[in-house]
Amino acid sequence: MPVTGIEKRTQTVCLIILTSIAVGAAMYWLAPVLVPFVLAVFFTYCLTPVIDFLQSHLKIPRALALVISVVIGIVILLFLGGVILTTVNQISDNMNEYLSLFKLMLKKIIDSLPLDTLRISRRDIYDSLYKVPQLAIGGILPAIVDATMSILSNGTLVIIFMIFIMIGRTPGEEDGGTIFTEIESRVKRYVITKVLVSTVTAAFVYLTLKLLNVDFALVFGVLAFFLNFIPNVGSAIATLLPLPIVLISVELSVTAKIMAIFIPGAIQFVLGNLVEPRLIGETLDLHPITILLSLIFFGMLWGIPGMFLATPITAVIKIILERSDTGIIIAEMLAGRLDRIEKLKANPVDSTNK
Question: Residue 282 and residue 304: Cα distance in Å, rounded?
Answer without folding.
Answer: 26
